[in-house]
Amino acid sequence: MRSFMGHFAAALVAFAFVAGCASGPATPRPVDPSASDVYPGSGRGPSLAIAMNDAKMDAVRNAVIDMIGADAEAQHSGTLDAVLYNTRNPNAFVHNETMQTLRRENVGTIDQMDMMYDITIAVNRGAIESVLAANNISAGVAAATEPSDRRSAQELVEEAHADVATPAERTAVAALEAQVDDWDEASAEEQRFIRRYVDTMTYLVYFNQESPESPFVMRSGVNQANSYLTTNGMTAVDAGQVESLTRDQQLVYEEETGREVGILQWGAQRLGADVYIELDAVTSGEYVGGTHFGSANVTLRMFETSTGQLLGSVNRRSQRTASRSSQEDAVLNALQSTVYQAMPLVVEQSRIQMANAVARGVRYQVVIQNSSDSRMMSEFRRRLRGNVSDIITVSQTAEQTRYDVFYFGRIDELEDLLYDVSATVPGMENMYHVMTRGKALTFNTGW
Fold it and tell me: How many CB atoms lie within 10 A of CB 64?
């Protein structure tokens, strides 16, 4: 990324060029106002989204200091914290499309890892001035404001502090904005597809079945995770469906996978989840002075369903919780509260990694049975390649050929495409569908 000084130098070059082109002794044309509104910002936090939002508001703070002076900014720091710096919607005071990332890295220790995020971004000077004027913070800015302007400024403050989206949506959108550089090679339509895809993902949460903890305790953690997902508008697979599938279809699982795929991943594939989350926890409790205490150390690991690729891991340790009724109640409170606190980071990491994973299209597995004619299969692959982002041959025998197909579209759209392509390949005109499971499509050549 270019540094802030690089942007500043570029602005000076642009100014010199415009001034040199002016005819006669007239005053040089003014530089684009947006160039003078660009400020650096630095943020730090336990997640990428929090660090990025802090960086945006640091840029806003730098703009305020530039507008009213450091002394006035310090004098009004309490008011500024209340009406501006602690906003839940920093995007109301910046122009997101101008953001340039200078640094993004993890810092700290394994036990306490933070994200550092440095940017430059153009601030929304008019929005900032309205808030300053509405609160009589006027050093260096116009303080005279008509009543209608004051109402507008007050509305702006209310909007900035309003819950304009659910917490998960605010976190996820911010996180994806931070990753936009990874999508440079994707078209605008493909980027819209990526956003729609991660917005509509289905999650499956279940606990590690080898955990020594009580299944009752672990189910309470799963239910809390699902409560967070559904409360924030996301789709979650019911834990009862997972238990029913893994209990009733054990033999099917062993026949289909040979135990080479974990049963939780297999269940997620069968139930149509895009991301599956494995919950593990260690709890402890004690009884002191007539009060029961509990604590929990929780780990949530997220995986992409079709490949089993690890998307991330979030670990949280609870504060000691108290209960007058029972030790189990104290432990449950500790586990549930810790899981709920961890879920925003779980969702954020899942969305970021899935957005990166589908940057060249959703990865589908396509199996073609009865593929003894290698020339025919080569022609099929060649013709399909021009209609998808990429296609990779995983294995090929006379019995079947396996492909990984990267495609910007739904699985039913890919099925239609496969029929269209096979109809143009001699010998594959009668190809028919055998089975769809998760992101895997199986066909037979029809020979």
Answer: 27
* DSSP per residue, 288-321: ETTEEEEEEEEEEEEEETTT--EEEEEEEEPPPE
Per DSSP, the residues of 65-122 read HHHH-HHHHHHTHHHHIIIIIT-S-GGGGEEEEEEEEEEEEEEE-SSSEEEEEEEEEE
Q: How far is CA 59 from CA 41, 47, 95, 123, 356, in A?
A: 4, 19, 11, 7, 27
pTM over 0.70: no
Count of positions (residues) in the chain: 447
What are 203's strand-pairing partners? Answer: 236, 275
pLDDT of residue 126: 86
pLDDT digits (tens, 9 = 90+) for 115-167: 788 889 999 988 898 888 888 887 644 333 333 333 444 444 444 444 334 44
Amino acid letter, residue 137: I
Which residues are 396's β-sheet partners? Answer: 401
- CA dihedral sign of residues 387, 388, 390, 392: negative
Q: Which residues pair with residue 297 across a beta bridge?
A: 282, 317
Q: What are the residue ranges of helices labelled H in 123-214? A: 125-134, 147-161, 167-178, 188-199
Q: Which helix (H) or strand (E) holds 203?
A: strand 202-207
Round the CA-based radius of gyration of the chain to a whole number and report it.
28
Structure tokens at 203: 């999650």
Q: What are phi and psi of 187, to 5 degrees?
A: -70, 170
Q: Measure the CA–CA gap between 70 and 62, rounded to whole angstroms.
A: 9
Q: Residue 52: how many CA atoms within 13 Å on its side-chain side?
A: 23
DSSP string, 334-359: HHHHHHHHHHHHHHHHHHHHHHHHTT
| Cα–Cα distance, 107 to 44 (Å, whole number) | 9
